[in-house]
User: What shape does this take?
Amino acid sequence: MKKIESVLIKIKIQNNDFDVSKETKQLNINKPGAIVNFIGIVRGIDDKTHEKIYSMTLEHYPGMTEAEIETILRDASKRWKISAITVIHRVGKLFSSDQIVFVGVASKHRQNAFDACNYIMDWLKNKAPFWKIEESSKEKKWVKFNVSDDDDALKKWTEGK
Assistant: This one.
């Protein structure tokens, strides 16, 4: 973990799975009062085609991905009173129901933790440079970046700014 101002942060991009319990315990280091976690998993069905998804392969650009995630965490730490943040994102070939991302936020108060976690996940989904290939029974296809649902998710953070 390293510090951004007074917030402990941990960013990991890895092939291996992560242990939610272990990561949560690490966020509890300063006895914050609230910890909120988000765990994303690989979907088993494509929302539009209803085809079964066999796997998803994720790629990233080392260094650039971590830097973009750090920017997102800096922004979150300026907006909310939080004590620690962990972001773990997996890369490589993953299968339906595999854990893909962990975002954990510790704060003295629950609302700061909830809001910061939601903010981080929305921006991570939109701005962190990950490239995804989904494999179904019919095809392999690149997953589109910045679809309208993702853009809509960002509006709550940018409107009225």
The chain has a mean pLDDT of 90. The first strand starts at residue 2 and ends at 4. The two ends are 30 Å apart (CA to CA).
